[in-house]
Automatic annotation (TrEMBL):
InterPro entries: FAD/NAD-bd_sf (IPR036188), Flavin-dep_Halogenase_NPB (IPR050816), Flavin_halogenase (IPR006905)
Protein name: Tryptophan 7-halogenase
Gene Ontology terms, MF aspect: monooxygenase activity
Family to which this protein belongs: Belongs to the flavin-dependent halogenase family. Bacterial tryptophan halogenase subfamily.
Coiled-coil residue windows: none
Highest taxon of the lineage: Bacteria
Amino acid sequence: MSAIEFDVGIIGGGPAGSATAAYLAKAGLKCVVFESELFPRPHVGESLVPSSTRVFKELGLLDQMDQAGFPRKYGAGWTSSEKAPIYDMGWEGLEADCHADVRFEEREQAGVDRNYTYHVDRGKFDLLLLQHAHQLGAKVYEGVRVKGVDFSEPSKPRINFSIGHQEVGTSVRMVVDASGRRTVLGNQLGLKIKDPIFNQCALHTWFEGYDRTALARNGSQKEFIFIHFLPVTNTWVWQIPITETITSIGVVTQKKYFAKSKEDREQFFWNCISSRPELLAGLKSAEQIRPLKEESDYSYAMKQICGDNFVLVGDAARFVDPIFSTGVSIALNSARFASTNIIQAAEKGVFNRSSFATFETTMQRGIKNWYDFISVYYRLNVLFTAFVQNPKYRLDVLKLLQGDVYDEEQPEVLNVMKKIVTEVEQNENHLWHRYLGDLTASAFQPAF
């Protein structure tokens, strides 16, 4: 096909690609989605943050989300096996507890009209979103793997893919790479940079019949997401409701601890779980219903996330450690911001890099804030729980946890956190010095 067939070609039909397609189709642009897999397909990343609600509202998807029966997520909790000693920061000797939690309703959030978000079965959720994009007018091809993009004609990129044994292509006005961790354009254009700090891996599975209140304060937290700190360096467990009776459990650790053989990885998973006896007892009483699956090559960045006739969204643009369930939220919000610029570019008929400047600036600002927040968290876990409990900073932390990270260049709460981390690092006699983690010891140096 030599003529331009579509305004926008989208590589990947996950949340970033589907949301982008939905926004563009809703605006009347002719777009096509090429998805390499056949939906539904299982996928990691099952818990959302409240900023996702804005996207669902704008795309007219909220009713379908409720009708799908996804568990409602009203808040989040963090547990550890020991309390940190009291450190007087002018907070009347507040101590970092072994349990911290927040409810999203504590802070009013512009554009979000409910006090919950969702936990999702990604197979079901991703299919719902892709079908919605199709219903709005996007052309969708599943089981079609994109080989690359030919930019030799700057105003007419050609997306090359195969159907059966035949190599074919489609010409478009611009390309959106939403290929996830395949990072099609990031690899093709030499944009991808490995994150020098985060080198994490995850082992995860589903359990039927696990008592989700085992480490909660009370039964009202049954539908919370929980992060359980482990007494293993820089290692933690996620606990995410999938249905009324099914729970996703994942162990995240540094790659250097990651066992090579399948049998050793299985043993490592259970060794980590056994470091929290209450968690072990609960899971041993439940039934594991999926094989253990691994995820690696977690964190990376790109030299740029847009250029002439292309933008990168979701995991194709950046992936950061999943400690705060940011993956799907970043995907949806990047689709939201990118689509605004793409629609404006289409109206002007100009698709050069400067057309996507607002998208690029907004995403870089938001990702940096996420990155700094996660880095502080890994460097000094007890600081995070202390800030969550402190009325002066609680809502500022909650704002970040809700996913509102894009509007400020440097939230003041992060500046205060960094300052305290520096004080703890420089004073070996500090009560919290022994709690410093080594993973992000150099995280606040320029990484890229």
